[in-house]
């Protein structure tokens, strides 16, 4: 028979380790900059271009800030940023004005920064063109290879992650359990 005290200690240690991991991830450095993108390169699996040709095969977009010479990137994992930049420039990536961006430092390439958000002229972060949005116009949807399929996958993933589960043990004296769901992981115990 498994000792309940050992299981409780194991779960507490597991929770502490998970909390520690979250703290480490929160230490990623972010910054903001006003940039004027030039020398924009859009890299697809089989070629490079300076124009947006859709999602399929896109790997990374990179550009240099004309003001500072710093290099910035956005990769396929953040397609919302790439689509938004393409939408702002009508697929051409030719910027007449500066834009304000929020970036994170790229661990693999310290001289490069990865764009994560874009600010509008009003100083607020823009809603990115991604599958989480249901309010996109037909023109905005044209920047997706298949918006409807991506939206359906997104909703299915959201529905799956929102289902929550409880695993608990109850006796006449004590009640304890392990909880996990869309907002994280937890352990509880009553005495």
UniProtKB/TrEMBL annotation:
- Entry protein name: Lipoprotein
* Origin species: Methanosphaera cuniculi
